[in-house]
C-alpha cells in the first residue's frame, strides 16, 4: 500500500517543485527600463541667401586658330635656290623667306616678251594689209561707177541707132565682172579686219602672259607681307618643285583667334547680346594674371552640339600656336537678383532646401547658369524665397521636407 502511494506522490512533488521554481525565477528576473526613442538630428552646413547682380559663366573648351593662314605656292616649276627661314620662326615685314632659281624665272619671262613682240609685228602687218585692201576696194568701187556709166551711155547710143546690141552686151558684161571684183575687194577688207581683231586678241593674251611672267619673277622671291610666324616649311635648298606646290605656310601674329564650341543652351543669350552690341568676354587664368578674350562672332554653320564662337586673343598671348587647346570661361549678360550657391546645395536640376526652425523645407528654383567663386563653379539660381534665408549646403541623400537638422558653427 505504501509503495503504491509513493509511486503516485513522487510525480506530484516534481510538478509542484517545478511550479515553485518557475514562480521564483519569474519573480526575481531583472526589469528592463523602457526605451525612449529620440528623433535623429543631421548636422549640416548652411549659408544666408544674398541677392546679387551676377553674370553667368560658361566653361568652354577651344582651339587656337589663325584666320590669315597663307600657303605660298611656287609660281613656276623650278629649283629652290634659297630657304631663309625655319618652322616656328618669327619674321618681320619685308623679310625674304624662299627664293626660286633666277634661270627658272627669267626664261618664261623672255618667252613672254618674245610672244608680245611677235604679236605686235603680226598686228602691224595686218594693219598694213588692211590699208592696202581698203585702197583697192576704193579703187575698184570707182571703176565700178565708170562701168555703170559706160552701160548707160551704150544704151543711149543704141536707142539712137548709133551703137549695136553687141556693144551694150559687152558693156553689161564688163559691169558684172567689175561688180564681182568689188565684192571680192570688200570681202578682203572685212576678212582682214577680222584678222586684225584676232591678232589684237593674241597680242592682249601675250601681254597678259608677260604680266604673269613678271609677277612670277616677283613671287619667285617670296617676301613676308607683314609680321608673321612660319607655320611650315615644305621645301629645301636644291629641291625641284612643280608649279602650285606649297613652299611655305605662315600666318600674321595678330590673326590668332580662339575657336570654342558654344552649347545650344547658351546660343539665344549670346546671339541677342551680339545683335544689341553688348560686349561679351571669356576669361583665361594664367599663372600670373587673368586674360580677357573678346567675343568676335559666331560661326555661319551650327551642329547638334552647338555653334563655334570666335574670340580675339590678346597680344600678351601671341606666343600661342594654332592647334593649342584652351579652357576659358565665358561671362554672359548680367542677371538681376540671383543667388550663387555651391552645387552641393542643388538637388536634381532645380531644387534646394532652406532651413526653417531647424527643419528642411524644399524650394524649387530657376537655374540661371554658373558663376566662379574662389576658382570653383557655383550654381546661379533665381530664388523664390526672401533674402537672408538659410540655405542648406550639405548634400543629404535622405533630404526631405521636415527633416530635422542642426547647423554646424564654423
From TrEMBL:
Coiled coil: 109-138, 189-223
Keyword Transmembrane helix: yes
Residue spans crossing the bilayer: 9-25
SUPFAM superfamilies from the UniProt entry: HlyD-like secretion proteins (SSF111369)
Keywords annotated in UniProt: Coiled coil, Membrane, Transmembrane, Transmembrane helix
Domain of life: Bacteria
PANTHER family: MULTIDRUG RESISTANCE PROTEIN MDTA, SLR1207 PROTEIN
UniProt-recorded name of the protein: Secretion protein HlyD
Organism expressing this protein natively: Thiomicrorhabdus immobilis
Amino acid at each position: 500500500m505504501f509503495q503504491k502511494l509513493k509511486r503516485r506522490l513522487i510525480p506530484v512533488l516534481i510538478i509542484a517543485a517545478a511550479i515553485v521554481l518557475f514562480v521564483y525565477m519569474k519573480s526575481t528576473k531583472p526589469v528592463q527600463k523602457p526605451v525612449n526613442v529620440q528623433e535623429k538630428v543631421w548636422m549640416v552646413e548652411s549659408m544666408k541667401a544674398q541677392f546679387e547682380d551676377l553674370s553667368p559663366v560658361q566653361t568652354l573648351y577651344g582651339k587656337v586658330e589663325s584666320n590669315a593662314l597663307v600657303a605660298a605656292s611656287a609660281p613656276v616649276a623650278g629649283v629652290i635656290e634659297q630657304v631663309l627661314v625655319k618652322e616656328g620662326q618669327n619674321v618681320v615685314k619685308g623679310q625674304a623667306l624662299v627664293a626660286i632659281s633666277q634661270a627658272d624665272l627669267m626664261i618664261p619671262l623672255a618667252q613672254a616678251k618674245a610672244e608680245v613682240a611677235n604679236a605686235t609685228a603680226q598686228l602691224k602687218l595686218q594693219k598694213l594689209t588692211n590699208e592696202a585692201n581698203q585702197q583697192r576696194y576704193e579703187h575698184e568701187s570707182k571703176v565700178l561707177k565708170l562701168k555703170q556709166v559706160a552701160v548707160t551711155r551704150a544704151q543711149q547710143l543704141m536707142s539712137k541707132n548709133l551703137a549695136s546690141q553687141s556693144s551694150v552686151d559687152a558693156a553689161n558684161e564688163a559691169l558684172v565682172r567689175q561688180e564681182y571684183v568689188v565684192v571680192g575687194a570688200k570681202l578682203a577688207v572685212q576678212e582682214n579686219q577680222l584678222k586684225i581683231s584676232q591678232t589684237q586678241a593674241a597680242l592682249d593674251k601675250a601681254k597678259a602672259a608677260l604680266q604673269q611672267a613678271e609677277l612670277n619673277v616677283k613671287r619667285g622671291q617670296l617676301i613676308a607681307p607683314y609680321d608673321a610666324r612660319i607655320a611650315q616649311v615644305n621645301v629645301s635648298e636644291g629641291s625641284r618643285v612643280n608649279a602650285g606646290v606649297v613652299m611655305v605656310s605662315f600666318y600674321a601674329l595678330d590673326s590668332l583667334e580662339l575657336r570654342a564650341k558654344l552649347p545650344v543652351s547658351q546660343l539665344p543669350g549670346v546671339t541677342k547680346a551680339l545683335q544689341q552690341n553688348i560686349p561679351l568676354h571669356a576669361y583665361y587664368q594664367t599663372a600670373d594674371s587673368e586674360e580677357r578674350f573678346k567675343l568676335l562672332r559666331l560661326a555661319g554653320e551650327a551642329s547638334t552640339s552647338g555653334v563655334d564662337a570666335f574670340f580675339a586673343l590678346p597680344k600678351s598671348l601671341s606666343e600661342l600656336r594654332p592647334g593649342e587647346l584652351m579652357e576659358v570661361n565665358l561671362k554672359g549678360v548680367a542677371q538681376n537678383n540671383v543667388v550663387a550657391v555651391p552645387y552641393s546645395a542643388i538637388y536634381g536640376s532645380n531644387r534646394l532646401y532652406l532651413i526653417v526652425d531647424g527643419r528642411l523645407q524644399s524650394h524649387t528654383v530657376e537655374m540661371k547658369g554658373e558663376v566662379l567663386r574662389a576658382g570653383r563653379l557655383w550654381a546661379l539660381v533665381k530664388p523664390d524665397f526672401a533674402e537672408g534665408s538659410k540655405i542648406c549646403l550639405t548634400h543629404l541623400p535622405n533630404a526631405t521636407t521636415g527633416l530635422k537638422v542642426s547647423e554646424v558653427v564654423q
